[in-house]
Amino acid sequence: MGESATTSYSSSPSGYGIGPPWLFRGRALYQLHLVKAEIARAFIPKELKLVEAFGYTLGGLFLAHYDDSPAGVFDELVVIAGIVWNPPTSCAWASRVLVNSHEACRHGRKEIGLPSHVAIFSKRDAKASDQPLYKQRTSFIHSKPKEHSEIQVLEMEDYSQTSICNISLPFAGDCWMGPKIRISLPSFSGQTTHNPQLLKYSCQIECRVRAVKSAKVSRPRIIQLDEFSNDIRAKEKNVDDRLSTENEERDRSIAVLLSKPIMALEFNLLKMQVEAPTVVAT
Question: Which secondary structure element, helix H or strand E, spans residue 37, and what is its range?
Answer without folding.
Answer: helix 37-41
